[in-house]
């Protein structure tokens, strides 16, 4: 048996007894020979996949697969069979079905083979993609609720290229490869989930996925996605956090170039513009433009760049309605937004400039001029009824907070209690606001400031919105040492979780309580303190004797 089945090399007859003397079992020897041969075979299969004419090389691989497939369940041979399948652009249907039916085989096969299975089996592909999408949303929410509050590092700090290196985007990119059908399936999943949940992070993933494929120069997909060049240009703007004139013209060209009969592209473009990173860039650029217009004595309606930014904001904010209704046309811009609301915002900028100049002038007998405290009724109404006005208004409030402009902040804060779709209580806005409020840390010692911010704004929504509760606790965890003790005590009572509160709120509240306990003076200190304040004994003065 050994002679018939052993390795037929004459020189081995003398070498094998030598191994016996060293106590090396024949099994170990044959196993190492087998492993070596398998490695050589794997190298040869990879070489065949690259040499000769296309038809010939694939014919060789198909023949090899036919001969070896019956041994696919043998652990020692399986890697060879899997390698042959990996290099075949089209594995026979019968073999794919056998792989799909066996869980272990399906798990062991390469992603190149899985792609061939997935493209005709949407449900299976959906099962593979679904956990990744959940993980992606969870990662975004974790950043928004992070306990590290800073105006320097926030949700929008990472560059687009850095974000695309994330685990989920990289895994999806690998799963899709160059397969247009799988790419379309992922986009369909994202549209469906966006419609079902209204979660804008799916829009971010749609843009990131396209740009990740762009980075890898996968032209098979990039050339067929009509949004590719638009997304590429917008990506450059997001990187700079500003839409400059040259890129504005390019973006306008893409929007104006949507031909009749291709209006469906607007649905995808609106989803890319609905990405929070795109909205952030457009809103920041709008605020910057408005400030420039104040300096130029120009009205908003006279600035084509500003009108384009509003057009893109409007398209982004209308994404859900457009995809839901399947009516693909750009939302109509309200004239009052340009003729009334934006001039109102500009008047706030002028108020700030005027106040600053007044402070520098020598004070006359009439006394210092107070900062305007009233808000025009129209401003509050716009924030309640117009989505784009609300978005720009919120970004203006973030802008003045970042400038440490306490007067302007306290003046406009009451307008945030009631906004369009409760946008002022959205996670992204509250994440940015809490970060910017750290710049006004010293103001938290003032009763008036805390009452306006906490009682007038945050606590108004805490009971009905758990996310607001979480953001307030995050802010206090960071700034509790700045707040007056009496105010801190009343806030602690007001923010106590109820039975209905989630685990995250309870956990944050416990962290805050622990921090406050550590700040309380120890009993020894408490007893010593009064002794310092004992009245001195009265000593009679010479006059009273």
From TrEMBL:
Q: Which GO terms describe its cellular component?
A: NELF complex
UniProt-listed InterPro entries: COBRA1
Q: Where is this region: Disordered?
A: 519-545
State the protein's name.
NELFB factor
Q: Tell me, what is an example of a GO biological process annotation in this record?
A: negative regulation of transcription elongation by RNA polymerase II
């Amino acid at each position: 048996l050994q002679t018939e089945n052993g390795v037929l090399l004459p020189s081995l007859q003398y070498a094998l007894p030598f191994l016996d003397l060293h106590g090396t079992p024949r099994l170990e020897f044959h196993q190492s020979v087998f492993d070596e041969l398998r490695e050589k075979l794997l190298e040869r299969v990879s070489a065949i996949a690259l040499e000769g004419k296309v038809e010939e090389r694939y014919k060789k691989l198909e023949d090899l697969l036919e001969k070896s497939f019956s041994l696919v369940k043998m652990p020692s041979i399986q890697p060879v069979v899997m390698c042959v399948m990996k290099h075949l652009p089209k594995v026979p249907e019968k073999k794919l079905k056998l792989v799909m039916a066996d869980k272990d085989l399906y798990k062991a096969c390469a992603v190149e083979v899985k792609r061939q299975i997935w493209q005709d089996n949407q449900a299976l592909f959906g099962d593979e993609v679904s956990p990744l999408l959940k993980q992606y949303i969870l990662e975004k929410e974790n950043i928004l609720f992070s306990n590290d509050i800073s105006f320097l590092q926030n949700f929008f700090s990472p560059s687009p290229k850095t974000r695309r290196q994330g685990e989920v985007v990289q895994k999806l990119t690998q799963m899709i490869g160059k397969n247009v059908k799988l790419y379309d399936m992922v986009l369909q999943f994202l549209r469906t989930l966006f419609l079902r949940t209204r979660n804008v992070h799916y829009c971010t993933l749609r843009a990131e996925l396209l740009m990740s494929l762009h980075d890898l120069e996968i032209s098979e997909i990039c050339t067929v996605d009509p949004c590719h060049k638009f997304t590429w240009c917008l990506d450059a703007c997001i990187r700079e956090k500003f839409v400059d004139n040259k890129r504005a013209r390019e973006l306008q060209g893409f929007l104006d170039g949507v031909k009749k009969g291709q209006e469906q592209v607007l649905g995808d473009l609106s989803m890319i513009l609905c990405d929070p990173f795109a909205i952030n860039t457009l809103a920041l650029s709008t605020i910057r433009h408005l400030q420039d217009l104040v300096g130029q004595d120009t009205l908003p309606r006279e600035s084509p760049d500003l009108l384009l930014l509003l057009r893109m904001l409007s398209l982004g904010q209308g994404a859900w309605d457009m995809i839901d209704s399947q009516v693909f046309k750009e939302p109509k811009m309200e004239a009052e937004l340009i003729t009334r609301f934006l001039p109102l915002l500009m008047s706030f900028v002028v108020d700030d400039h005027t106040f600053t100049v007044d402070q520098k002038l020598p004070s006359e007998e009439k006394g210092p001029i107070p900062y305007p405290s009233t808000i025009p009724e129209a401003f509050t109404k716009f924030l309640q009824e117009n989505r784009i006005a609300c978005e720009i208004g919120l970004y203006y409030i973030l802008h003045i907070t970042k400038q440490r402009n306490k007067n302007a902040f306290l003046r406009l804060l009451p307008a945030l209690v009631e906004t369009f779709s409760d946008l002022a209580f959205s996670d992204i806005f509250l994440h940015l606001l809490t970060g910017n409020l750290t710049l006004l840390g010293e103001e938290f010692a003032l009763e008036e400031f805390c009452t306006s911010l906490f009682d007038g704004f945050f606590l108004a929504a805490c009971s009905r919105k758990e996310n607001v509760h979480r953001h307030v606790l995050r802010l206090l965890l960071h700034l509790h040492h700045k707040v007056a003790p009496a105010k801190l005590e009343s806030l602690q009572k007001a923010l106590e979780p109820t039975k209905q509160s989630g685990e995250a709120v309870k956990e944050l509240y416990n962290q805050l309580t622990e921090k406050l306990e550590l700040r309380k003076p120890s009993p020894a200190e408490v007893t010593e303190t009064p002794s310092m304040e004992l009245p001195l004994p009265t000593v009679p003065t010479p006059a009273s004797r």
